[in-house]
Specification:
Blueprint (H helix, E strand, L loop, with lengths): L5 E5 L6 E4 L5 H12 L2 E7 L5 H12 L3 E6 L2 E7 L11 E2 L4 H11 L6 E4 L10 H9 L3 E3 L8 E4 L4 E2 L2 E3 L5 H11 L2 E2 L1 E5 L7 H8 L5 E3 L2 E5 L8 E3 L4 H13 L4 E8 L6 H8 L3 E10 L2 E9 L20 H9 L4 E4 L12 H11 L3 E5 L2 E5 L6 E4 L4 H10 L7 E4 L11 H8 L3 E5 L4
Bound molecules: shikimate-3-phosphate.
């Protein structure tokens, strides 16, 4: 999907001012297609994220016989086929860069009548899948990966799944969601215990589709035998995309930004808590509930950040925001220490190593550790950094340009399209001096 290389070039000296609505939430957009497809009736989605990852999920369900119209200006109409109406796609489902698609679909497809193969791009083909295939096998799934436990994932259909109780060794919303979706097709009850709270969009959305979900403390369970009834879904703005501008407005001089309609699900707001601990000025205004998910507008102004020891319980609640939080740390007074975040090493890139390498190039004292990083804030210089094809790394280093003394060039930025295709335009409108160029050289 990303044959063309894109390079970002950010000039120093910009700031961020004004109002913006960042695109729809990626996690919720994926789930709207998945649940809408296996529901009965017509599901209308607004605010859908029109980015490569969510389009991969959409193409997969189209290949399995679901009629889906759109996306057009964020509107998608899905004609659900019911829990047992998906059809054999007759070819492997290519999921691009999307870990969410691969892990959630593994569960949803483990109990179907047909065989299916899930594949992805180079980055996705390196990511750990044993975390889903092991418990799915315990449920009776016939599922194979490579010897390393990576994709392609081969799922053999026509098996009878049975519910299990699973104690997740890692706090992962993708693993939890995978098992709950498999549980819709498994005999009896499927329950998942999470070692720390993780995003709960699957549970909320299942309830929104009228499917009973039970939560008792850290354990969520579903039983098979129910049906999903089509509904309308209004997808809030993605707090993970908003996070770039929260950090940007905090570190830039004279910044004042209002981000509209941001998803404020408490399992996602760790970035706000961490930034506030660092001294950021973030006003949460106009809080409301939209389609079962809390939403608010956020006003962020420049502030003098200070280094902190990031509380480990906030790690799963801010798991996708660490690339840009490391940039905040680089601009803070003193040392910021992150621990308990080894998961960052198996995201779209090894986000600990890649961020530490880039920050060092920009003159920051950043020491990677097996499960986190120590960053000492200081003057940011310019330089040429590598995103390693990781969308969030590319956007994080772009934001660093707001405080850098020289231009920052970021290579391999095409994958920004997987989560935030309008990033450059929006960032530029708010005042970041960013340009995207085709090719490696500027
Ligand atoms: C996601 C869960 C998180 C997150 C990813 C999206 C989801 O992954 O990093 O971007 O939609 O469930 P893990 O569950 O692996 O932490």
């Amino acid at each position: 999907m990303h044959h063309n290389k894109i390079t970002f070039e950010v000039q120093p000296g910009g700031t961020l001012q004004g109002e913006a609505r960042v695109p729809g939430d990626k996690s919720i957009s994926h789930r709207s297609i998945m649940l809408g497809s296996i529901a009965e009736g017509i599901t209308e989605v607004t605010g859908f994220l029109e980015a490569d990852d969510c389009l991969s999920t959409m193409e997969s369900f189209k290949a399995m016989g679901v009629s889906i119209e759109g996306p057009k200006a964020g509107r998608v109409t899905i004609t659900g086929v019911g829990l047992h109406g998906l059809k054999d796609p007759q070819k492997p489902l290519y999921l691009g860069n999307s870990g969410t698609s691969m892990r959630l679909l593994s569960g949803l497809l483990a109990g179907q009548a047909f065989d299916v193969v899930l594949t992805g791009d180079e980055s996705l083909s390196k990511r750990p899948m044993k975390r889903v295939t092991d418990p799915l096998r315990q449920m009776g799934a016939a599922i194979d990966t490579t010897d390393d436990g990576t994709s392609p994932i081969n799922i053999h259909g026509g098996v009878a799944l049975k519910g299990i109780h699973y104690e997740m060794p890692v706090a992962s919303a993708q693993v939890k969601s995978c098992l709950l979706l498999a549980g819709l097709y498994a005999k009896g009850t499927t329950s998942v215990h999470e070692p720390a709270p993780t995003r709960d969009h699957t549970e909320r959305m299942l309830s929104g589709f009228g499917y009973p979900v039970t939560r008792e403390g850290p354990t969520v369970s579903v039983q098979s035998g129910g049906t999903l009834k089509a509904c309308s879904i209004d997808v809030p703005s993605d707090i993970s995309s908003a996070a770039f501008f929260m950090v940007g407005a905090s570190i830039a001089r004279d910044a004042d930004v209002t981000l509209l309609h941001v998803g404020m699900n408490p399992t996602r707001t760790g970035v706000i808590d961490i930034l506030k601990l660092m001294g950021a000025q973030i006003d949460i205004i106009n809080t409301r509930v939209v389609g079962g998910e809390p939403v608010a507008d956020l006003r962020i102004r420049s502030s003098a950040l200070r280094g902190v020891a990031i509380p480990e319980e906030l790690v799963p609640l801010a798991i996708d925001e660490f690339p840009v939080l490391f940039v905040a740390a680089a601009c803070a007074e003193g040392q910021t220490i992150l621990t308990g975040a080894e998961e960052l090493r198996v995201k779209e890139s090894d986000r600990i190593q890649v961020m530490a390498d880039g920050l060092k190039i920009l003159g920051i004292d950043a020491t990677p550790t097996p499960d986190g990083m120590a960053v000492i804030g200081g003057p940011l210089g310019g330089g040429v950094v590598e995103s390693h094809g990781d969308h969030r790394i590319a956007m994080a280093f772009s934001i660093a340009g707001l405080r850098a003394s020289g231009p920052i060039t970021i290579h391999d930025c095409a994958p920004v399209n997987t989560s935030f295709p309008t990033f450059v335009t929006l960032a530029h409108c708010l005042g970041l001096k960013i340009k995207a160029h085709k090719g490696d050289a500027v």
